[in-house]
Each structure stands twice: as C-alpha cells, then as structure tokens.
Design a protein that fits this description.
The strands form three sheets. Strands 3, 10, 16, 17, 18, 19, 20, 21, 22, 23 and 24 form an eleven-stranded mixed beta sheet that branches. Strands 2-6-7-8-15-11-12 form a seven-stranded antiparallel beta sheet, with no helix packed on it. It is α+β, with helices and mostly antiparallel strands. Helices cover about 35% and strands about 20% of the residues. Among the domains are: about 90 residues, Sandwich (Immunoglobulin-like); about 100 residues, no CATH class. β13 and β14 form a beta hairpin. The chain starts with 12 loop residues before the first strand and ends with a strand.
Length: about 625
C-alpha cells in the first residue's frame, strides 16, 4: 500500500515481530497468558466500565451518557492493537469477529467529517474537554486518543488485511491534517499529551503519504514556541523548543512518547538537530533519572521525572506506561545509533520495571512500581496488592499491546549485518541483500547465560553477526555512572563457532563475527552470571549506605512473605556475603532465587531469600524492598 518516496530512514531496521516466533520458557507463558487471559479480561473490563458502550452510544446503537474519563477511548484502541498483534501470531476466528463488531461501532461513532471523540459526541460534562473542538488541547486528550487509534488501525490492517479500522483512522488523520498546520486558517497548537506523533508516523509508513509525517513534525516543531502560541510548560515538555531541550522533564509517559516520536521524525527527515536533542535528553535520563529497575518517573505529583538524582524508593512512581514508552524510545535510539547501550536499557526495563506491571495471572496490575513498600504509602496498592483495574487504566491496556510485539525487539539488520539484541528462544526470519537467513535461538535466559544460535540458509551467505555482550557482563549496570557494582570485575564470557572458541572483534557492545555462514552453523555464547551487589551514586540520597542485588539482567527484592517476623529495614548485607542462586521451578512460575546469610541491626544473623522484583506481590501483599542496608 505504501508508495515510493525518497525519505531517509533508520540505518538499522528491526525484524518485525510477525517474522519472529518465540519459544521461550520465560516469555512464551507470559505471551500466552496475555492472549488467553489479559486480552479478553481487558475487553471485559472495558465493557463493564462503559468504555465500549461509549462507542455504541455515540454510534447510535444504544442510548446513554458518556461514562468515565475523557481519555477512555484510548484504552479501547490499545487493547485492539494488542489483540491485532496477537491475531498476527495466533489466528483466532472468535477474536477476529469480536473486533469486526467493535470496529463497526467505532466507525459509527465517528462524525461525518472524521472527528472521533466520544466524550464530546455524547455531550460529556467534563469541562476539560473544552467548549468546542481543539479548544483545550492541554487537557482534552482528543489528539492523544486518536494517536492510539492510528497505531491500532495499522496493527489491525497488517494483521488481517482489513481496512475497516484503517479507514476510520485515515478519515480522522485527514481532518487533523486539515485543521492543524502553518497555512492561513489552520490552528497552531500541540497536544498536551503526546502520542499522536508516533501514530502519524505509522500512518505515513503504511500509506506513504507525506502529510502525516509532516504533521507529526509540525506538532514537534511547535512545542515550546511561545512566540507562536500559548505554551503548556515543562510538565508537557512544552517549556522550550525541542531543538533546545537537554533534560528529561515533566510527565514521564508524555516525555518518553515524545522522545520516541522525535526519533522517528529525525530518522525520516534527517534532522540532525532533533537527533542531537534526544541524544542530550537520553544522556540526562540514564545519568541521573533512571531507576535500577529501568523505571522512570520519580514523583507521584505529575507522574513526573524528578530533579537530578531524585530517585526515592517508597514513593517512586515508575508508571508501567512510562516503562513501555521508554522501551519505545530506547529501541529507536538503537536503530539510529547501533549501540548496545540502548538495548541494555531496554533489557533492564522488560525484565524488571515493565514486567512488574502485570501479575503472573494476567488479570492484576500495578500502575506505579515502587522499589520499597511497607504499607504506609499506598497509592494504587491496597489490601489486595495488585489491582484488578483502575479508573485510569492506561497501564493494563498498554501491557496488552507490548507483550505480543516482543518479538520485534530481538533481531535487527543493517546491510549485511545481523544484530542479536535480546536472548529469547525461538527463531527469526531475516532478509539480507545476499538472501534470506533464519536464526534459531535456544536458551534459558534470564536464569542461565548459555545462548545457542543456529544459522539456517539454503546456500552459503556472507554476513556479520553482531551478538550483544550485555553491559552487566562488563561490570556496568547501566550506561552511565549512576549505578556501579561493589565488585566491578567483568564477568567471564566466551563465544564459540561450530564448537571452536573465537576471540571476536568488539564494536559498540557487540561481538562481531563476520564470515561465510553455512546451513547448520552454530554459535554458542556463554555468559557467567555472578550475583552482583549494586551501589548508587552518592547523590541518590535514598540509597546511601544501601545495595541492591542483581543476577544477569534481573533485579531482586526481599519480601516479608519469605521472611516472616523480620523487619526488612533491619537487614544488613555484607560486601562478602555468601549468596547462592537456586532455581525454583515450583515458585512464582519458575524463578531463580538468591539465598544466603544477612545480618540484622541487633548483630544477629538470619537467612535471606530474594526473589525477582517483577514477581513481588504475586503471593501475598507484604513489605518489600529492593535496596538493602549495607554492612
């Protein structure tokens, strides 16, 4: 469907998730739970809370008022996107038919000129939607909502070949293109909550129509332009023009969505000033605003970034949506630069600060993800722990769309170079200039550091295989000095090709093996996984005198569930504490736990057991902490 044009693009392209099959002891059960539990559960909750009824009512299928928040339309679009991704991987006639019916109601809810915002169509009394269209973009979310519509529409079209939702999205996008822009009579304004920029770029990639990309750039160009419009301040990243910005500020989800959008526009337009801006912002984030779990957003007030090194534990916000948005941002930074440090951040997020947002059961969720909890500070954490839903339920529906798309983060290509970014079992079908190649991966990562790759090719192919050597292997938890290991000695690793040990060239965090590959050739990467103690920069006040435990990419915590009768804050972990890793197939869906001895404040000793942070509050809700006192 896309037309040919002469735009630039990312120098590296990811292998799409629908060209990758995942067969992983760790991830496959989660993706299947998402398909069989979370997707139908979220649709049922959308029905129960009036989110689906809003479209039916706006479309004339039933009577009734608008229910819920003005941004509830976006929740439905996100579940549709996740369902479409799932359909692409696992055909399901019942789900397909359900989507057809729902899309018909969405199409009916769309006004004749393409406008779609059920809160306004149904006459909501919510004053934040504005007196008329586009009159309160700082708060209305009407552009945010349709950004998620665009993403869902492209996903549904690519999964099914049906244009039903895509046509709805294009009619709306055409209206937005006519309404906003630099021409006389057009509005000069920006969405208060960014997201439409990503959606517009997806429409551009699908249709080849420049106007969608041009509008995405227009929305970005107008941010901070107080000479042309009333700006919304740093909460909305609207405090100065993007090309002058250098810090991660304001609402963390809005910020990371915008940074991902900037990366898209920079790649497609070749705008070096945009690229320089997000390089600066990324450096600010990883240097002083990134949690050890990969989460972002220190403050509950405004769901926002804090000041430099402001990283509290018990009041940490770390919204699940922010982790997902930050994955989108860092993946795009990799596609621009080809450096493994961005993938290191992605890995840290998906195994810790993102995965913590959904229970193993698939029907309970966290909105914020604190790094300690003692029952005193309870924002969206109640007596039952993980919540079955939220009035503002952006996080559960965001998880739904991320998990089935995970395959798109594993492999990437650039000319004759193939990147292996994530160690997730399965296979990827990769198109190279020299011909197609299939890479099959087998591993028990993240519990075991042995990764086996097999090359399948009909005829010999010459290409360079770039295998990521994670930063945690080289003694660096994150790509900055924000955190460091008590013992910074790099972990041992080896690389074998067809059973022969090699010493590959290292480039930007990758071991590079360039050779003529034959069908059946094998690569074995062996990563030692020592248990690490992590310290934070002394400027992180909350973690002075404390250490966090880590093994491989997984951050650990202690839960009162495993240590009854112990005040967790009295624990003292010595630098030379003898800690052991033990895999427990019977615990929390199968996890490797850390066990050993720790001291107590009174000088006595106690047994300690630490579980992966992502798995806390899956058994019973009780005190938890990631950062332990250092003895």
């Amino acid at each position: 469907m896309k037309s040919t044009n002469d735009r630039t693009d990312y120098p590296i392209r990811p292998i799409p998730f629908n060209r990758v099959s995942i067969d992983s002891g760790f991830w496959s059960p989660r993706i299947e739970t998402n398909r069989t539990v979370t997707i139908p559960y979220d649709f049922a909750k959308c029905q129960e809370t009036g989110r689906l009824a809003n479209f039916a009512r706006a479309g004339g299928f039933e009577d009734g008022p608008h229910e819920g928040h003005r941004f509830n339309d976006s929740d439905v679009f996100k579940v549709i996107e996740g369902a479409a991704y799932s359909l692409a991987l696992h055909p399901d006639a019942e789900l397909d038919a359900f989507l057809d019916d729902l899309i018909a109601k969405i199409a009916a809810a769309q006004e004749p000129d393409g406008y779609l915002f059920t809160a306004r169509t149904l006459g909501s009394d919510d004053k934040t939607i504005g007196e008329h269209r586009w009159s309160n973009l700082r708060l209305s979310h009407e552009l945010y909502n349709v950004g998620h519509l665009y993403e869902a529409a492209v996903a549904h079209y690519e999964a099914t070949g049906k244009r039903t939702l895509l046509d709805v999205a294009l009619r709306n996008a055409d209206l937005v293109c006519e309404t906003f822009g630099p021409r006389p009579g057009q509005l000069v304004d920006v969405p208060g909550h960014q997201e439409i920029e990503i959606g517009l770029v997806k429409l551009y990639r699908t249709t080849g129509k420049d106007k969608y990309l041009d509008l995405a750039k227009f929305f970005l160009d107008m941010r901070g332009r107080s000479d042309l419009r009333t700006t919304y301040g740093d909460y909305c990243q609207d405090h100065e023009p993007i090309k002058q910005q250098s810090q991660a500020v304001g609402h963390a989800v809005r910020a990371a969505y915008m940074y991902a959008g900037i990366a898209e526009v920079a790649a497609l337009t070749g705008d070096g000033e945009y690229l320089a801006a997000i390089d600066r912002i990324w450096q600010d984030e990883v240097t002083c605003k990134l949690y050890i779990t990969g989460g972002i957003g220190a403050r509950h007030k405004g769901e926002a970034f804090g000041d430099a090194y402001e990283l509290p534990n018990d009041t940490a916000y770390n919204e699940t949506c922010a982790a997902i948005a930050n994955v989108l941002f860092n993946q795009r930074m990799f596609l621009l630069h080809g450096d493994a440090k961005y993938i290191d951040v992605v890995e840290r997020m998906i195994y810790n600060g993102l995965l913590s947002g959904v229970a193993l059961s698939g029907d309970r969720f966290f909105y914020p993800n604190p790094l300690s909890w003692d029952g005193e500070y309870a924002f969206n954490i109640g007596e039952v722990g993980r919540s079955p839903w939220f009035k503002c339920s952006c996080c559960p529906v965001n998880v739904v769309r991320f998990l089935p798309s995970l395959g798109g983060y594993i492999y990437a290509v650039r000319d004759q170079q193939v990147y292996v970014n994530q160690f997730i079992g399965g296979s990827g079908q990769i198109e190279l200039p020299v011909g197609p190649v299939t890479l099959t991966q087998r591993s028990d990562y993240p519990w075991d550091g042995r990764i086996n790759l097999t090359v399948q090719a009909q005829t010999p192919r010459r290409f360079a295989l770039h295998v990521r050597i994670p930063g945690w292997v080289n003694g660096q938890p994150v790509p900055s000095d924000l955190y460091h290991y008590v013992d910074p000695t790099p972990a041992a690793w080896t690389l074998n090709v067809n059973g022969q040990t090699i010493k590959p060239t290292l480039d930007n965090g990758y071991a590079v093996i360039e050779r003529q590959w034959h069908d059946g050739d094998t690569v074995q990467l062996n990563l030692a996984m020592p248990i690490r103690q992590v310290q934070a920069d002394e400027r992180v006040q909350a973690n002075r005198g404390r250490v966090a435990l880590e093994r491989g990419p997984v951050v650990y915590c202690v839960e009162a569930t495993d240590m009854p009768g112990i005040d967790l804050d009295e624990l003292r972990v010595a630098d030379d504490a003898a800690l052991s890793a033990e895999h427990r197939a019977d615990l929390l869906g199968g996890v490797t736990v850390l066990t050993g001895q720790a001291g107590l404040q009174n000088g006595s000793e106690t047994n300690i057991i630490a579980v992966p942070y992502y798995a806390w509050a899956n058994r019973a809700l009780g005190p938890m902490q990631v950062w332990q006192n250092r003895r």
